[in-house]
Structure formats: C-alpha cells, structure tokens
Amino acid sequence: LPQQLATLATTAQEDAQQSRQQLQVQQQEVARLQEQLGRARQDGERWASALQRAQREALEREATRGAEQARQQELIRDMKGRLLELLREKDALWQKTEGIDTPVPSPAPRDAGLCTRCHKDFRLLSRRYNCRLCQGKVCHTCSVDVGKQGRCCLLCYRQGQAQAT
C-alpha cells in the first residue's frame, strides 16, 4: 500500500506539474490576447476619431460648396440680367441706325495694312485686293469677284447693282 500511495503521489505530482505548465501556457495566451485586444481598442478609437474628423471636414466642404453654388447662381442671374439689358440696348441702337444710309468708302492710303471695310490686318493668310472702283484695299471676305474686271469691295458692288436696276 505505501508503494501504491507513492506512485499515486508521483502521478499526482506529474499531473499537477502538467496542469501548471498548461495553466502557464494558457495564461501566456490570455496575456497575448489581452494585448491584442488593447491594440484593437486603440485602433478602433483612432479609426472612430479619424471618421469623426472626416465627417466634420465633409460637412464643412458641403457648406462651403453650398455657399459657392449660391454665389454662382446669383452671378448667373446678374449676368442674364445684364445680357438682357445689352440686347435691349443693341436693338435700340439698331433701330436708330436702320434709316441711316451706308457712306461711300473713302480711298485708303496706298500703304495701309488694314482692310478698309472690316479693319482686319493683312497677313500671310489674309490677301489684300484693290477695289477696281474706289481703289480701297479690302480683304477676301469684304470683296466680290466680278470676273475679268477684277474684284471690288462689297459697298461698290452693291452700289453698282443698285444703279443697274
């Protein structure tokens, strides 16, 4: 019996030793998990703080955009009003000038670099023509080709057409 008790005591000690080792391993695992939980909580707090900051910034941007949009709409309304005023003014001026006859073009100086009708600058791609009637210098747009007789300005051409009828 004392030998059985000794084996039982040895077995109990070995079981106790294994239980202590398992407890130690489990305590280390719990400590590691608690550390991870602490880091996860810190990360969660940082993310929540970042989310709140981003939401606050988004609300501020939205308020700024709303104010800017209101200013732009007001500017558009003002511009439309000004456009209507200018159109009315143009129409009034057009009605005033409708009865005025177009004057006969005065001959331009020989060395002029501008079209006598539209005042476009003669350049490489903008050819200069001499009107066969008034000798003014005109561009292609402001002249008419009258065949073998050459080119003449639109005003002289119109006057010639009016005299022919």
TrEMBL record:
InterPro entries from the UniProt entry: RUFY4_dom, Znf_FYVE-rel, Znf_FYVE_PHD, Znf_RING/FYVE/PHD
CDD domains in the cross-refs: FYVE_RUFY4
Keyword Coiled coil tagged: yes
PROSITE patterns with a match to the protein in the record: ZF_FYVE
Keywords, ordered alphabetically: Coiled coil, Metal-binding, Zinc, Zinc-finger
Coiled coil: 9-43
Residue ranges constituting the FYVE-type domain according to the UniProt record: 109-161
GO molecular function, one term: zinc ion binding
Membrane-crossing residue ranges in chain numbering: none
Protein name per Swiss-Prot or TrEMBL: RUFY4 protein
